[in-house]
Design a protein that fits this description.
By secondary structure, the protein is α+β, with helices and mostly antiparallel strands. 38% of the residues lie in helices and 12% in strands. It has six helices and four strands. α2 (19-33) packs across α3, α3 packs across α4 (116-123) and α3 crosses α5 (127-148). Bound molecules: zinc ion. Residues 91, 95, 111-112, 117, 168, 170 line the site of zinc ion.
Amino acid sequence: MEEGVRGKVTPFALLMRDDDWLAAHLDYVWDRYFADTPRANHVDIGFSKRWKARLGLITLCEPADKTIIRLNGLLSLPVVPECINTVTIAHEMVHYARGFGSPLPCRHKHPHHGNIIEKELLSRGLGTEYDRYLDWIDGEWDAFYQANARAPRRLWLPRQSGATFVGVADDWREAAATLRQPRPAVPEETAQEN
Ligand SMILES: [Zn+2]
């Protein structure tokens, strides 16, 4: 007998994305695209609130040494292309692999140093998913959010002070603005400096 991820046998359950589905999707992304990244601690992933301008975040809880990844609750809706979940998880996995929100060595001050997320997603074979992700965010997100977010709620923000928050909260508007900028032009050989 087929069962939904929570054990209920309903067609709708088969379409729903819950935290079990998300944990399985993290395993898929990790195995397929981040096989070189060790699981250095316990990683807890789940959906969170319906943020207006954030798709995901990653936090290392100290001293428990547990990583928490949260995705925008709206991404649990079946209408959202699955690649949005895939790329958002992969984005947080880049942070994890580079020591942000994880116990792995951290070599940079800033988690988005040098457009590193885009570079890593492309080098790890996620280019197709990433292009679809950018197109959907640019073209669909605002209308989707308006249609599916309930009563306006305060934008959730992670704790900014204190010893326990050492993670990265990703505001996709900021990230998208950065990523959509044209690549640097090749320096002109004849450029003159005064
Ligand atoms: Zn990020």
